[in-house]
Fold each of these.
Amino acid sequence: MTMAAQSPETVARTAAEQWIRMYRKMVSIRLFEEQVNELYTRALMPGLAHLYIGEEAVAVGICEALRSDDYITSTHRGHGHCLAKGAAPDRMFAELLGKEAGYCRGKGGSMHIADPDTGNLGANAIVAGSVGIATGAALSAKRLKTNQVAVCFFGEGALGQGVLYEVMNIAQLWKLPVIYVCENNLYNEYTHYSETTAGDIPARAAAFGVQTASVDGQDVRAVHGIATRLVQNARNGGGPAFLLCNTYRYHGHHVGDINREYYRSKEEEQRWKTERDPLKLLSAWLIDQKLADAALLDRIQSEVRKEMEAAVKFAVEAHYPGVEEVEQDVYA
Amino acid sequence: MPEAVQRELTFAQAVREALAEEMRRDSRVCIFGEDVAEAGTPFKVLSGLVEEFGTERVIDTPISEAGFTGLGVGAAMTGLRPVVDIMFGDFITLTMDQMVNQAAKVHYMSGGKWKVPMVMRTTLGATRRSAAQHSQSLHAWFSHVPGLKVVLPSTPYDAKGLLKTAIRDENPVVFFEDKMMYKLKGPVPAEDYTIPFGVADVKRAGDDITLVATSSMVQVALGAATLLDEVGISAEVIDPRTTWPLDEKTLIESAKKTSRVIVVDEGYGRYGVTAEIASVIAEGAFYDLDAPVKRMGAMHVPIPFSPVLEDVTVPTEHTVFEAARALCRRS
């Protein structure tokens, strides 16, 4: 394929559009999760809710480097990954409320959103539960020569699970196109990761010969830059990669985890929110580079807010599945 | 009977033929596991497959049962049809999250959108002097889980037909082979055929007592039936062939006909396959039964090494014969 030469202005405009699109995506995740918090505290949402707020740059920076038919697997804290890969907020909310219009007809819920149309193999509520699935998808991509890449998102808590090392070993031996994305939000539930994790994290993957990288997970531009390189390499047959994204979970392990001072201070939380917020960092840069002005960013915020309100309304008004569905789809 | 049906294969050859035919039929079918390629597994069940299909489709893995089973799940979801080889049934313990939390639930949790057309082949059976970690029959565990299908072939004919059905099924299927049976010979047609799941097979018709037997215990039950014949008791031997789906109707009909039932299975009796089948029969044929349904399984002990100890842990022709005679009150 030959590329038509682009003027510097066109390149700059394309880049600006790309960062503004990523800003909108991150705002979408932030406001989606704020709505989830609201639904949960108003007792409209059954079960558990694990909010992704604070980590938006990771999902967006990486998924923006993917094709729509590339695969992802996600986690219990997975709303951000699903949205970043292209899921629609209304059907997401419907799933969270157990409605028939949800992505899984209400059978999966918050922790199990899956959607073949966006390459989402499923969020997984077993820590490290999807590492085999993602690696298997990469095996299919290689065997069937589809040129797809699989991205496996997991938190640093998954570093404690042996199966992760089993599949990284296999992925490297077989040169599979899979990117293991470790989101280190510092806490394995209610325990600081330093109490559970010996040694150097990327060194664990490097021991298998897997290409590794670490990145500031609050900086979407940095995440996107490195993700683009790793995804391209995997797509070109260069084998797997391990990307450590250093980030922070603003809320508790789940919505009900309110009193957190026994495991982390309010000062620490405040510091991340004021100094390291991924939305603030990107908006400041966009304004500084004169790629956007405050009015544009405000407009995006209010558009997304309206979209989320409409999506919540859709989900609240949607029907529950009929009880006769309980025995459907146990077997294909 | 056509000539082809007379051809005899061993159980291992029947398994291999099913795999080879399905791999020729469908390029998405692939095998992975420990020592499956050049070694053809320690039981030599897969000998010759890598020569025909290459290392792209018959793939040796590291000794990582959880890892490569997980790969099987993901590969099945995305266009391959993996047959995952777990060398000894005891090692399914290492794959439980992949099978129970992942493979079995993907279809349901995704609202019917993703499918996992994957087969796990593994083994069961004691008396091979392999001690406690290479001798168990743990098929009841998977039979307990919605979303999985569990297959227990007892003859070379059934092994070929059921394995082909398993590979063509759109769901995760666990296929247990009795490792003591690999050299058993029996008629196997050379042509393509499949055997549907959930259809029990009457291995021997009889009138006085029903012996429901699975896998390794089918030959034991048939041997016991021959001994029973000599004392004037006519035993019917029924093999459910799949524990899930389970052909409840055939089991209940036979129980109604004979009015006495023994269920024989090599898994542990407690909370096991025999308990489930006995319960199905008790519920379905209660008013036609002349005696409580009797269950015979492995003793509730880890399988011991010493042959004199190991041999008493599992039902034999003789113990089944004695139990049947007692149940028919003809001592």
Amino acid sequence: MKDSQIRGAEIVIKSLVAENARYIFGYPGGAIMPVYDALYDYMDHIQHILTRHEQGAIHAAQGYARVSGQVGVCMATSGPGATNLITGMADALIDSTPLVCITGQVASHLLGTDAFQETDVVGISMPATKWNIQVRKVEEIAPAIAKGFHIARSGRPGPVLIDITKDAQTAMGEFNYVPCLNIRSYRPYPKLDDKAIDRAARLINQAKKPYVLFGQGVVLGKAEKALEEFLDKSGIPAACTLLGTGAISESHPNFVGKLGMHGNYGPNLLTNQCDVLIAVGMRFDDRVTGDVKRYAKQAKVIHLELDPGEINKNVKCEVAVLGDCRISLEKLTGKVDQRTHPDWIKAFRELEAEEKRVVVGNDLSPTKVGLTMGEVVRHINEFKSDDAILVTDVGQHQMVAWRYFEYKTSRTQVTSGGLGTMGFALPAALGAQLHDYNRQVICVVGDGGIQMTFQELGTIMQTKAPVKVVLLNNNFLGMVRQWQQLFFDKRYSFTELDNPDFIKIAEAYNFRVQRVDVRGDLRQAVAEMFVHEGPYFLEVVVEKEDNVFPMIAAGSSVEEVRLS
Amino acid sequence: MNKRYTISVFTENFIGILSRITLIFTRRGINIDGFTASESREEGIYRITIVVHTTEEQIIQLSKQIEKIIDVIKAFYYLDDEMVFQEIALYKIPIDNIDSGLERVIRQHNARIISAEKDFVVVEMTGHKEETQELLEVLKEFNVLEFVRSGRVAVAKPMETIDKYL
């Protein structure tokens, strides 16, 4: 054995350090113990955040990745530790979040013997990862991690899993880290076809009612400025998807609102009136399209997209502009005419006024006794800073917060979009906060979702991350209850909750706490929350049976969006 | 409209690649009619041939999803008339039932006997599924003890090769 040799476990840590990973979100256990032992000597180089559950670790890594644009790293042991990561992997895959997940595995001679805490995590995680691998030899550890980081962050980002047997962790080997820059079988950036740009520009220049829909691809492709310049020159109105929110400021004159089941009235309705639909870095999710057979049939669709698999998957397009949307947008901006579309944008503004009159007014400035989720968000807007990050869970509060939070900059929106993972918000908020202790991170969460990952209050306590948790408590699984009211004849099957005293729980975790159940106390409480320097837990008891509108019922067309 | 398609997938030799490919079909509830894998002309590159009944729209999506797999180099899809393909079938027939009729059948179908054991002979035939199926029907009078047919092996008629994707 040469002196230069080190244990595989140390190679794992040195590889992560070589990739400039700042945090490992993780949880130790038998099969990953050698790596944790190696970590003990590297605490000055990389920070480990001990969550209270592996699901919390991966959601925290996701929150960190979404806000920072860096690859999130999480670590767990074999068996249950590994399976507890699966939900987060599926979430990260569908929401294109770059993650490297490292799991310990039983020693290679025990593989396939049903050894203690053995599970086939490579098999289980296959449909939930962009790529995965089991490493059984010490010399394969560093190359696997290098490849994993490259795959996670390049092209359309996604989660990768590296499963390392215990004997590979304890074996001795050389450390020589070579970053992975190219994989023969993997082309993350398709070559841009200039002819497609020409055809797209021609369609746009001839259009009378062109309409831009943008998604998270704009954020992932760092195309925020390119999009803004395209909109400035072309004068085209633009609406965002849930995950595209914040890519351009909502105060941009061309920004007309949000798409989807609980998006804005005009942006949904007018999808079926535009003549050219320009989709930028979005994938026509069914929550955006409603009934796809009645979606934008009158329009010629131009799809700017990095992932060839998304072209013509849900919506057929006239022109596919495959490639990095930042470059595509820059080229398009060069070729489109300088125009304005005042009448067309006015059509959006008129519907916006109607939505304000029928829905928004009652949400934000209600006159009834019960508090609304909307008015809580209105007060958050009043006190938050421009770069505040909003992390939400899944359900009514998610839709309301998304509708009313004033997004000013990119990467300020963190939520579980595609998978709709309840329990996402609390750990994701922790991860978002750890990216920058000085940024405001507001975690808006419901009484259902918070109880799925409640234990992560402990991680927030231990890290002293100054997360502002705003619990909107209606003692119901509100979104399911809303559907039961609207589509299941008010048969409230298992949606009402007998809740614990949330304040006592948060207090036990050393949070500064406040509970509000009357309107008169709300504004002051929100103000106090933002003034407090450490973690804060604000519970607002809201109206039990409020509904989120506008709404496109499942199976309906975007033009059937209803205001009540 | 459903047609029979053949997908030719070129992959790196990576553990788990077959699972990743088949998951794409299972997730969409598409039955795989034939599946073969072997090393291709290029050392270290594997060629997987998959036969499915599906629509053109679906086959395009399936091919793109297969290509998304990191270790897949390229996936091509073809209709039957765009390929030259073969399958191989083996038929195990007991000695007791053999008479001169067997020779006639074997000659007519361009089949051959590849093994003669004490109790049985094994007949081999290569051809399209319809042809090997036809021989099976004919051989039934001799009592077929075992029958097996391989997945399809196929080369494409278009003059495109994998080289340009490496």
